[in-house]
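I had to read the description of the data format several times before I understood it. In essence, backbone conformation is discretised, so a fold becomes a row of integers matching the chain in length. I therefore recommend that a typical entry be quoted early in the introduction. For illustration, here is how one protein appears when written out as sequence plus structure tokens.

***
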Amino acid sequence: MSIPWPVQVDIVAAFSLLGFILVCIPLYWHLEAWNVGCVLYIFWIGTQCLFQFINSVVWRDNAINWAPAWCDITTHFNIGSSIAVCCASLVINRRLYHIASISTVSMTQSDKRRNIITDLAIGTGIPILSMALYWFYQGHRFDILEGVGCVEEYPNSFLAYLLYITWPIPIGLVSATYCTLTLRAFFRRRRDFSALVASNANLTFNRYFRLMGLAAVEVLFTIPLATYNLVSNAQAPIYPYQGLADLHYWFSRVNQKSAVSWRSDPALVSGMNFKRWTVIGCAIMFFLFFGLAEEARKHYRLALSSVAKKVGITTFDRSTGFSSSGSKPIGSSFGRVTIPTFVQRGTAARRGSMDSFSDRLSTNISISDAIADEKAAYSPIESSSGASSNGSSTFLGSPVSEKGVSPLDALPPLSFPPPPRRVYDPESPVRRESVPDVPASVRPHSADMV
């Protein structure tokens, strides 16, 4: 069962938008590292995904020429981006080769500036040149396909092969040469490679190998796919070139084709699917190499903490122990808050405050108890021996000797004689027993009548 055409258009639009978002996520730290090749790759692939998404939405169910200027821009950009992806891979491989084969670990500012200018010339100069040469083999202005949008149009002439179709193959071969030389230099100088990577503050081992992997994958796919595109175009009839006047006849026309019309051509359907899904695949592949790395996860955590802090949600970072509000919590590394306590030091068993009194209210008082009842001076130092078995967690013990026994406990207790018994207890002039005004009944359980 085939998927309905409107659903296919929506799927391509959704994945184009997803590819644009994913490929732009690592842009910040590649700009920070001055990684020109990756920045160029993000720019060309991300912009192409964005243009694909907009075209799929605007021309989802129509082929009306809504924006001629927009179509002029996007069709020329399509020509340049297909060459620019190969050039970005060449820039990455060239940089990796210079890092692996450099003879000194130090680079001057002029050397860095010269390398950046060279990378920009390769990554932007060649694509801009291809866009400028597009006019020489362009048949007419552009075509509009329902469900696809604006499409560049050129006849299958030898000028198209010479100025556009065959370009990815030599660029891919040069990039493959740099990739092979990089691997050769790396295996020869494995011992000195750590010093070479350390010479670049923005390059680590993991990032270097991810760049090498991306460049190698690009080389492995660029040459086969470019060869497949060349063979597919060569199977079609070749348009005989008779000069620019014949080629540019009625140059301003715009062919508008409905989905039923252009989808009846299997070769055109295959070419459109290959063109659109190749761009989406390049965006997803780049994200898999750089969007899931450790440095990327670090940036994700920082962004999440920043957003959570703005909305008032407190997050906890297990690696640092700090919350998103910037304060360090008290307690263990799992964020549990504990209150500091003062534990009684190990001393002799302290008698209770009521032990000096007997059940008959004896007046025998121990001086040591009386002194021990006094509060000791505040000391925030905890004893390593722990609290006593009957002590409170906030009790401050009395000073002890070096042997661990209080010197007051060695004194004999002093006893006082009991107070003399009272011989004469006169009646209190205040407290008197009240005499009832009416005599009580002689017989119990009887009521007196007054």
